[in-house]
Structures are given as C-alpha cells and as structure tokens.
Amino acid sequence: MCRPTPDLGVGRLILVRRLAQRYPVGMRTVFAICWLLAAATVSAQAYRWVDENGVVHYSDRPTEGAEQVELEVRDTGFTSLLSESAPATDTPAPTEAAATSTTASPATPPATTEYERLEIVRPQQGETLWNIGAVMTVALRLSPSLDPSHRLYLIYDGIRLTGLPTNQLDIALNEVYRGEHTLRAQVEDIDGNVLQQSSTRRFYVQQATIRR
User: Fold this and answer.
1) CA angle, 137 as apex, 132 and 138 as ends, to 5°?
2) Alpha carbons 127 and 138: distance in angstroms, whole number
3) Whole-angstrom Cα distance, residue 9 to residue 60?
4) Residue 53's pLDDT is what?
5) Cα 45 from chain centroid?
6) How many CA atoms does the CB half-sphere of 165 hold within 13 Å?
7) Tens digits of per-residue pLDDT, 68-113?
8) How many CB atoms lie within 10 A of CB 85?
9) Which one-letter DSSP state was computed for residue 209?
10) pLDDT 10s digits, 150-159
11) 63 Cβ neighbours under 8 A, 6+ residues apart
12) Which residues contact 85 (CB under 8 A, 6 or more apart)?
C-alpha cells in the first residue's frame, strides 16, 4: 500500500493537475508552469521509506532510514496537460448566411431612358394633303434621343404598322389613299412596353380630278 504524506511534491503535482482541469485555458498555462516546477523538484529530491506497518511513504525531505529515489513524472508538457484538460471541439462550418454575405451582389440593371416628348411634326393636325400618289413622309420629334435598344412604331388608322424602319425619325409611309386618316407614334422597349407616345393626328388626303 502506498500513501504519500501531505507535504510531498507528488501531492502538489496531483493538486496542480486537478486545478488545471477545472479552470479555463488561460489559467491552465499558469498551472502547467507550476506542474513543470513541481516535477523538477520531485525528480531532484524524492525520498522513500517503509514504516513498521508496511506502508510506503514518499517525501521531498530527507528522513531517517529513507532512500533517495528518482520518480518518473509522466506527461509534464504543456500540450499534454492542456489537451487532457479540455475536450476537443470541431470548428463549426460557415452558415448559409455567412456564405451568402461573401458572394458578390448582382449588378444593378441600367436605368431605362425616360422620354420627355414624342410628337408628329408632319402631317400637321387637320392638314389636307393633295396628290401625294399614296406615299407620305412622316416626320417625328423625340426628346431625348432614341435609345439603341428601343423602337419607334406608327399606329396608322388604329393599326400598328410593322416592316418600317424603327430607329428613324423620318419614315416613308406607303398606301396612303384618299380620305380621312389618323396617325400616332410610340416608343417601345424590347418587350413591347410603351415608354412614350404622341398625341393622335387627324389628316386628310385628296386627289385632284382632271376633267377632259
């Protein structure tokens, strides 16, 4: 049976180790230093003797009848002490919100051109056109200038005309026959949304008759 006395260096080692297991990592460094100092003391000054009851005693002070021994102190390094005192923890994986915050924000779409005015310059409101041979040139005025991604369309007698230039302000209109007509112009984006439109013009076409 082996029972160390209260003043032994071995007892101090056990006490330091228990304290290190109960306190935060910062305090464990201090306890680790104490551990090393205590271990050095035991290794240099350790004495062993057996009393009349057969009990083995250890002390760091010379005692009558005791023999000096070298005690093997295991695991006196900082790494082992700290690793046994604190359980290992895994580094948590980044959350979805954190991953999202590092991604680049989508680019802001370019602002759509806002047109202040679109008007029909020719023909004028209520104008009568004579002997045009069914061909008429429509003149438009647009402010600001037409965006390259937008298109101009004419609404002739309520019908949206296709097959005409959509990026010009002067447009030749065919098959304009005698009678009363209406005309309107509008700007559209690539999705067909109307961005600006003119007022409706009403005009007349007449053809002179030559009598023989």
Assistant:
1) 130
2) 13
3) 6
4) 85
5) 64
6) 12
7) 877 665 544 444 444 444 454 555 655 665 555 555 566 665 667 8
8) 20
9) -
10) 999 999 999 9
11) 47, 49, 57
12) 20, 21, 28
